[in-house]
Design goal:
single chain, 267 residues, alpha+beta, Jelly Rolls, Arc Repressor Mutant, subunit A, 2 domains, 6-stranded antiparallel β-sheet, 3-stranded antiparallel β-sheet, 11 helices, 17% strand, globular
Length: 267
């Protein structure tokens, strides 16, 4: 396995990911043009950031604003592994000014917030080569939400709540009309007229699932109807928008509890 792996996807031009097990790349002071979020998987490091030294152990999430000088000095170069996500500034401009200001501060997370962000970083990294762009970008949005604590905000004004329900309804309508397609967050933004950050938060608040999970439920329900007609599974997988039969089978089993083959043979 290579000691440094990068991930890029032309459908997600705002994002680059890095997986590193090579410690000799981490000593020099440097900065990134992007907002960067790191998670140490193995080892400990002294992380210098803008004149302050932090001790960062395995399992800790740390982030650096664009252009902020930082450097890492692993305590044991033979035992060192970490992940990084690099997010372009233009993509973050849709944040509210107060939230954007928070991202200009380096974070070394603690407690429940660290645990939540650790899980989200891992989810994004695991989804990079397996999932559709909507899943990956939603994961990054949720990670930013967790960093700036958007979930602690709530709206109680009735007129605002009516507007929220309108947006949620529009998102649902779009997904019902396009669930077999490769939907992007940019498309949902244009269809509804709100930023992807606001869109994800609202939809999860109203439905308890992100848009990609709702889209998958629509796909699975359609597939159940078609499987009952004894149609070929591979044909249904493509028709419902999954990129191959294996992906379809995994998603189907998670929702229905059995594989498409077993579901189709049940009478």
């Amino acid at each position: 396995m290579p000691d440094v792996i990068f991930y890029r996807d032309e459908t997600l031009p705002f994002l680059e990911a890095k997986y590193c097990t090579r410690s000799d790349l981490t000593y020099q002071k440097h900065f990134h043009e992007e907002y960067s979020i790191g998670l140490i998987d193995v080892g400990e490091t002294n992380a210098w950031c803008d004149g302050t030294m932090y001790e960062v152990e395995a399992g800790k999430v740390i982030s650096f604003p664009p252009h902020m000088l930082h450097a890492c000095h692993p305590k044991s170069p033979t035992s060192w592994r970490y992940k990084m996500l690099f997010i372009k500034q233009d993509w973050l401009k849709q944040l509210e000014p107060t939230e954007l200001e928070q991202l200009r501060i380096p974070f070394l997370l603690e407690g429940d917030k660290n645990q939540s962000c650790q899980q989200l970083v891992n989810q994004v990294m695991e989804s990079l080569s397996l999932e559709e762009p909507l899943v990956i970008e939603t994961g990054v949005v949720e990670l930013i939400h967790a960093l700036v604590n958007w979930d602690s905000h709530d709206f109680v004004h009735s007129s605002r709540n009516r507007l929220e329900q309108k947006y949620i309804g529009q998102i649902r309508e779009y997904l019902h009309a396009h669930y077999t397609e490769r939907v992007m967050l940019e498309e949902l933004e244009k269809a509804v007229g709100i930023s992807r950050f606001h869109l994800i938060r609202l939809f999860k608040k109203g439905t308890h699932v992100p848009p990609h999970a709702y889209q998958n439920l629509l796909r699975i329900n359609h597939a159940k109807h078609e499987l009952a007609k004894s149609r070929p599974i591979a044909e249904i997988a493509v028709e419902t928008g999954f990129y191959d039969q294996s992906h379809f089978s995994r998603a189907f089993a998670k929702i229905v509890g059995v594989t498409p083959q077993r579901y189709a043979s049940s009478r």
